[in-house]
Amino acid sequence: MFKKVILYSFLILTGLMTLAPFIWMLSASFMYDGHASTYPPRFFPDEITFYQFDNLFSRLNVARNFLNSLVLSIVVTVISLFFNSMAGYAFAKYRFAGREKLFKLLLSSMIIPAQVTMLPLFLMLKEMGFINTYMAIIIPGLANIFGIFLIRQYAMSIPDSLIESARMDGATDFQIYRLIILPLCVPILVTLAIFTFMGTWNDFLWPLISLTDNSMYTLPVALANLMGEHTKDPELMMAGSVITIIPILIVFLVLQKYYIKGIMLGGVKE
Amino acid sequence: MKNAESKLDKYKTGVSAAYLFLAPALVSILVFFFIPVISAFIISFTDFDIYSLGSYSNLRFIGLKNYIDLFNNPLFWTSLKNTFYFVLVASPLSIFVSLGAALLLNSKLVRFKAIFRLAYFIPVVTTLVAVAIIWRFIYHPRFGILNYLLSFAGINPIDWLGDPFWAMPSIILMSIWKNFGYNMIIFIAGLQNIPEHLYEAAVLEGANGWQQFKKITLPMLAPTTVFISIITMIGNFQLFAEPYVMTQGGPLNKTLSVVQYMYQEGFRWWNMGYSASIAFVLFIIIFAGTMLQLKIQKHSA
Question: Per residue in A56-66, pLDDT tens?
Fold first, then answer.
């Protein structure tokens, strides 16, 4: 019994610590200017106001940044899912010269930090006229090695007999991919979709480099930029954080089962 | 498996289709990942700067000059020192917290596991920039919640992000809070893979909880721990958004990270050749760190 009390106290205390900052964020976002800058601190608004949100959308044009983040996250997710799944399937189910070597090369290059590629990538995209456009975010996200890896691992468990019999029935390679492989891979595709969506939504350094105009910024870049001018406005900044965090939180809460599974796949298979 | 695959070959459709399936992903990765890596390597031996950005004819090869300049620049050493401070303190601490949380959540005595797990995991999925902004206000010297809570313990207000001593520990604390849930999930998976009969046998032999942990849990978790150490270390070496948002590298450059230094040199001052050499040094450090951990693991196994 005593052991249980200690165990639960630990668990609840840790839970409070992980959630408290978000509760304070939510609370402060509904306060009037200056109400979150008092001593002792207010934990709840005296009176709920939407003034900060109104300010963000009407004066600071955050709706545009929200739209940028949403469109880019969706587009990158859809395209990369398509590219990664085709490649993952090919690595899992076709035999071709150099398959193992190629796959090993891809896997081992995952150790190269993305920062190394950013300077030349910037120059390339500048030559193409893509800096400060959606393409600057979409192009480097077209495919990624981790995604190919996840799908390959999953597709390997699909029995060859399914593919063979479809082929005997006269199905083309692309039909097999679309009608057999993709439907069977739905769980891993959902997992990868969440990873990619969240990764794009939350990404900071590359959008900071490649988007140069306030109207093109994604939410994290817009938020960091806003912070520069509003260091003394916690209420406004918390409202901005709410707008940035809530959508991603909803995606996660709805699909958390798949997300957690993906982490375990990446972690245990190694 | 082998047999089935050779059967597929018999139908002779395979190879050309395989290349078609691979092409979109592999071409993208080649053009927008591998070629940039090689280009960055080449650029790091040039004096690529704002004039070269105007016209490539201003570009000259200068051999190892960028690297020599880098090693002679005290600011680079400061950023390297800060980054190592962050990696060497934050990584073990966060792994420790992750393991602790995983053990708690794996205990048979605990119910409502899913709810606790969810609560611990939420910081992982939320946007780092937004979270760093929240914490910046939590750390506020006058109005922040942290100082308010500490005042009950009789602790005088601390300027967490403005004090050269406290700035990095504050960033470390926030980063552990943000990330421990991720490794916790991997640890839970690792714990669940340990066969129950090992513990049963240990109990029969009269082993207590601590002995079971030391003799069964830890050794069985070793591969998981190595994996976690490596990905945590790689991630931590790339520290950027936290200092960018919370301290801008200050106070007195005490939180300036290598990536932030690279960003400033490359994209604020357009010293791209110099900046590329910083990126490569970071890569070499990460590579060496990974190899080192794999080697330690082999030795102890």
Answer: 999 899 999 99
| Chain A residues touching residue B56 (CB < 8 angstroms) | none
In a domain, B39, yes or no: no
Classify burial at B30, counting beta carbons within 10 Å of its beta carbon; exposed 0-12, middle 13-18, buried 19 or more: exposed
Domains detected in chain A: 1-49 (no CATH), 54-268 (1.10.3720.10)
Domain count, chain B: 1
Which has the minimum average pLDDT: A242-246, B9-13, B28-32? Answer: B9-13
Q: Which two tokens stand for residue B93?
A: 């601490």
**Which of B13, B131, B148 has the CB atom closest to A167's CB atom?**
B13
Contact A160 B8 (CB under 8 A): yes
**A44 close contact with B: CB closer than 8 A:** no
The DSSP call for residue B71 is H
Look-up of token digits 């509760």: A23
Q: In this structure, what token pair is assigned to residue B9?
A: 């070959």
| A194-236 pLDDT tens trace | 999 999 999 999 999 999 999 999 999 999 999 999 989 999 9
Render pLDDT for A236-248 as a digit per residue (tens, 0 to 9). 999 999 999 999 9
Q: Verify whether the Cβ–Cβ distance B22 to A86 is below 8 Å.
A: yes
Rounded to 10 deg, the angle between the A2-29 and B113-125 helix axes is 40
List the 132-161 stretch of A: residues with Cβ below 8 A of B.
139-140, 142-145, 148, 160-161
Domain that holds residue B123: 71-300
CA distance B300 to A54: 59
Cross-chain residue pair B8–A263, CB shorter than 8 Å: no
For B28, which of A143, A161, A220 is closest by C-beta distance? A143
Let me know how many helices (H) and strands (E) chain B has, helices first: 16, 0
Q: Which residue of B has its CA nearest to A252?
A: B125
A73 touches chain B (CB under 8 A): no
- Give the domain CATH number at B260: 1.10.3720.10
Amino acid letter for position B11: Y
| Nearest-CB residue to B104 (from A11, A95, A117) | A11
Option in A82, A120, A209 nearest B267 (CB): A209
Helices vs strands, H then E, count in chain A = 14, 0
Q: Please tell me whether residue B46 adopts helix, strand or coil conformation.
A: strand
Measured between beta carbons, which residues in chain A are less than 8 angstroms from residue B126?
22, 202, 245, 248-249
| Closest to B279 measured CA to CA, from B59, B14, B39, B28 | B39
**Residue B145 within a domain:** yes
Q: Which amino acid is at A64?
A: R
* Alpha-carbon gap, residue B258 to B272, rounded angstroms: 15
Q: Is residue B77 in a domain?
A: yes
How many C-beta atoms lie closer than 10 Å to residue B165's C-beta?
A: 10
Can you give the C-alpha Rg of chain B in angstroms?
A: 25
Flag whether B228 is in a domain.
Answer: yes
Asked whether the ipTM of the predicted complex exceeds the cut of 0.90, the reply is yes
Supply the Cα-derived Rg of chain A in whole angstroms: 23
